Amino acid sequence: MYSSALTTNNQMYSQPFCDASNCYYEAIQIDVAIDGLYAIASNSSIDTYASIYSNSFDPFNPSVNLISKNKGGCSFGGFRLAVNLLVNVKYILVVTRYDPGTTGLFSIIMSGPAKTNIKRITLSFNLPKFCPTADWNPSGTTFANQSTLGIYPTAFFIDMNNTVYAVNLEKQQILMWTNDSINANKIISANFSDSYSIFVTNNGDVYYDNGYLNGRVDKWISNTDTFVNVMNVNSSCFGLFVDINNTLYCSMSSKNKIVKRWLNDGEMNAKTVAGIGIYGFGSNQLANPKGIFVDVNFDLYVADFGNDRIQLFKSRESTGITIVGKGSSNNIISLDRPSAIVLDADKYLFIVDRDNHRIIRSGSNDIRCIIGCNGKGSQSHQISSPTSLSFDSYGNIFITDSGNDRIQKFDFLPNSCDTSSVVQSMYSSTLTAKSQRYNRYVYDTRNYYYEAVQIDVVTDGFYTIGSNSSIDTYGYLYNNSFDPFNPSVNLISKDSDGCTNRQFRLAVNLLVNVKYILVVATSDADGTGAFSIIVSGLTNTSIKRINTTSIVQSTYSSVLTDKHPTYSRIDCDLPNHYYEAIQINVNESRYYSLNFNSSINTYGYMYIDNFYPSAPSINLTRMVHNSFYKHQSKIKIVFQSTTTNILVVTTSSPNVTGTFSIIVSGVNNVTFERLSECL
């Protein structure tokens, strides 16, 4: 016996008893151990219809391979089939209803000379179901590194048994990790060139890209350890997918299209299903497509790499719908060259946003960053140029962190779905023109109002920190201390648009006895407005405003005249640029902001220890000029208290004079000393 239910989550088709195209159905594989006559009947409170096929079932052409069907062979609206079944033949029983769009429970009873194996035809990969509040540990662990994967790994897959597959391009190997092994315990040597994608079916067969030089997709047959060509292509496949109808798809990035081939016929050439082969932004066009995903309704999702968007092509439709990214109707998050798209059980999207170095997840009411939300890098909470993503059966996320030559695993946090005991703490304040100001990153030249808030927890655990405001807020979380002059130090997480309405959302593990500092800033320089912070977690949290290091400014003003010495600027030939050399003395080695303000177009050159006008490249550490915005510019620079810091101010054009001023901002006053003509 086999029992199941037709629900609104089942795929739909046009069943052979009527012309309706929206009948829910379930496909069930039947295998027999002995040849003979078998009876297949249903038991259900609903009217059930059945069709049985040999070898394969095509929902778009349900008469192909059909060997028997019945819609009333039993009482109470059940079906009954009497068929001869053979060993080593794959049979597919399709159960549906006569009335379109209806659902209900059913059971299948088989009678015959021997027991039969009855199983639902399932996907070969994991399709987890997550709650709306699901989150993942923002810090990943390295599953495999360059010593195993080689340089810039891309092709990756995890099957329903949590067997992991990856490709080592340099060694032309397909690597397998079985039975939770920490090392690859099976290696398949294959003849390919630059294989960018793989897909594994339920029987363990591995389809892999071999298109770059060899013009084909190949398959490694697991039962026989042999290789066969399964599709002819004339470019690499940056995405491979085999749907539940045994149709193979290839994303031909260089050809700007997606092609497919049904694996049950003898035709080796593929036909186009999306894109017209011309690079473009039209709804029927693609631009260097990468990853693809086909759902159970045969809808095709494409990571339209060059167009910074995700395209959905409904089954048998050649015109795409932009669902995320540039051109979408609800473009609340921007993508930069997305390279892969994966769906969960509820058809929510997981997007590999390659050149933003992050993973995006869509939910029922929002779309947000979940991994790599702190920018590009090689730390455990960062990724660099990711290319693909897979789930294991526990909902953990594995990412090919290609720029770091590794595969990273990010653990699903089950307690993120336990909202029954969630406690919320709130803090409200306002950014005003009297708030402290800083530059959001080291070399940012713009000033942003900010407020620093200390967060303390009494229980270790997972917490979310979100904002609620009418202004576009940014959130930065630090441990132990925050330095407004070097805002990258101690930074553990940041976000700008993780929630709707341009609000931030941080998902972090917080520990008792660790001081956390949340810095709330705005998207726009000089932006102000009211905001609230909501911290959700296991227990109440303490949230209080703190004062950070105050800014002290020191100013130096002077005038370049025709009495000043001249020299040949570092990138000029003639010694006809007036200059002034100024020594800047500091008491503490750290970052300082250096502002230039002038009525003329000035250049500034920073030197350590000595400046030689006859050899201006010696000891040079930094250059800045202010030609771009009203003769003003700003840089961040480290001044050392143990060295002589020399700033040489000169002009862009020769023989130019005029006033200038320098403002140095830091935690302490600095002193200026004008130097003589030659050192």
UniProtKB/TrEMBL annotation:
Protein keywords: Repeat
Keyword field contains S-adenosyl-L-methionine: no
Entry's Gene Ontology molecular function annotations: zinc ion binding
SUPFAM superfamilies for this protein: NHL repeat
Keyword Repeat appears in the UniProt entry: yes
InterPro entries in the record: 6-blade_b-propeller_TolB-like, NHL_repeat, TRIM-NHL_E3_ligases
NHL repeat residue intervals: 276-316, 376-413
Name of the protein in question: NHL repeat containing protein
Organism: Adineta steineri
